[in-house]
Amino acid sequence: MTNQEQIEKCIDLYYEGCCESNSEKIKKAFDENAMISGYLPDGLHEMNLDDFAGFVAAQQPSPKEKGDEEFLEIISCEIVGDTAIVQIREAYLGMTFIDSFSFLKKEDTWRIYTKLFHVES
Which domains does the chain have, with CATH numbers? Predict the structure, then answer.
């Protein structure tokens, strides 16, 4: 599997975790030291991985169970050695987000190291 394919698989795992409110999938997609930061309509939010996984798990019933729209688009992906920068657009919790991910490859596994998010609409 190419680096690009491995990164895309990680993004799919991340998005499945969000849609299913599955904290274990979220934790598998992210590096243990990951930070998640960005702006929601009520202002800036900054979270570590445990905080973010807890937030995702707290969305009950899950977006998938509620029948929320599912949409995921990779806008760009630039891989440089064992690092990558990926930008995606996703539907989540009734909003459209633009996420900027930084990835690190450790021990032959790509994981999200940082997530910056912005609500597009």
Answer: 3-119 (3.10.450.50)
Render pLDDT for 13-34 as a digit per residue (tens, 0 to 9).
999 999 999 999 999 999 999 9
Give the list of residues 6+ apart from residue 60 with CB closer than 8 angstroms, or none.
Answer: 21
Q: Which residues of 86-108 are buried (b: 16+ CB within 10 A; e: fewer)?
A: bebebbbeeeebbbbbbbbbeee
46-96, pLDDT tens digit by residue?
999 999 999 999 999 999 999 999 999 999 999 999 999 999 999 999 999
